[in-house]
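User: I've been trying to design a sequence by hand for this structure and keep getting stuck. Would you show me what you'd pick, starting by listing the structure so we're on the same page?

Assistant: Good idea, let's start from the same input. This is the structure you sent:
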């Protein structure tokens, strides 16, 4: 699982930071979370490619969606044939469809817009699901969490051989959870040679939001939580009326959730390239791995047991 930050600025772009967009690759699948103005140029600049199957919009403020019409048109120019799924907050489907149609023509490929009901599974793939969860912003909004299935326990080959299991297909049977019978008539059961199941990874993206209990719940043991951190403590009084979080509030959510890594994003332009105060305030609360990513930063998300 590999993350590329395409846009980390709050509200408007700067010369250093573009508006919101996060690109996620997992086992050959490519997902785009939000699509602010200029996202397709960021995709070219940072080499993610355009092969996206799903776009997940957290809400319809311009800094999260204005890159979508141009990107859809570029896919059309490039003779895209694969269908595209766009997920958006409840009650906003018609607005997204109108946004795509603002260029005057409909894409030649199939575009399906789905409303992502909080608490529902919006995508189910091989070994993972993507869930929508409720967030708190000034408009209809949702966040998204990619949650992998538990993985098989580790197979103890040495122990299997000591029990007389011959190298070959019976190893796979045991790892699949099937008991096997040996030539002498004895039976070896999976629990004798396979360890406990191992957790998959959890990626959580909030979009713009106040800190919420719902985010804490969905981000339990998250391997990477990307959370709104628009303001520092010096502007905490602006966070609540604008529907945003401070860096310290984002860190509190991560701490309560037991997240392993926290990325602070949607940084207000007032901080420019000086994010050290935000990180300092967050580190006073959260002792896990902490980042304030720049545009183009990339992260590999390891499995919890690695």
């Amino acid at each position: 699982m590999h993350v590329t930050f395409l846009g980390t600025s709050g509200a408007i772009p700067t010369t250093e930071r573009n508006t919101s967009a996060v690109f996620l690759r997992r086992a050959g699948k490519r997902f785009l979370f939000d699509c602010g103005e200029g996202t397709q140029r960021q995709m070219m600049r940072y080499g993610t490619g355009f092969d996206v199957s799903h776009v997940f919009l957290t809400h319809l403020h311009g800094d999260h969606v204005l890159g979508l019409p141009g990107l859809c048109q570029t896919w059309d120019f490039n003779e895209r044939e694969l269908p595209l799924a766009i997920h958006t907050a409840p009650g906003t489907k018609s607005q997204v469809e109108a946004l795509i149609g603002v260029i005057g023509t409909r894409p030649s490929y199939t575009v399906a817009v789905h409303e992502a009901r909080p608490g529902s599974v919006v995508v189910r793939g091989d070994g993972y699901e993507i869930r929508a969860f409720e967030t708190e912003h000034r408009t209809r909004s949702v966040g998204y969490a990619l949650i992998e299935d538990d993985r098989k326990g580790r197979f103890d080959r040495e122990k299997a051989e000591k029990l007389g299991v011959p190298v070959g297909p019976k190893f796979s049977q045991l790892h699949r959870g099937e008991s096997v019978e040996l030539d002498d008539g004895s039976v070896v059961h999976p629990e004798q040679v396979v360890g406990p199941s191992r957790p998959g990874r959890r990626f959580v993206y909030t979009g713009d939001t106040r800190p919420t209990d719902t985010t804490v719940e969905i981000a339990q043991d998250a391997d990477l939580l990307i959370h709104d951190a628009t303001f520092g403590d010096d502007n905490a009084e602006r966070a609540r009326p604008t529907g945003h979080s401070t860096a310290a509030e984002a860190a509190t959510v991560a701490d309560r959730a037991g997240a392993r890594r926290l990325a602070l994003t949607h940084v207000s332009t007032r901080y420019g390239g000086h994010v050290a105060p935000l990180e300092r305030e967050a580190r006073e609360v959260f002792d896990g791995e902490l980042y304030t990513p720049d545009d183009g930063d990339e992260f590999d998300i390891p499995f919890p047991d690695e």
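That's my pick for every position. To get oriented when you compare it with your attempt: The CA atoms of residues 132 and 144 lie 5 Å apart. The chain is about 25% helix and 25% strand.
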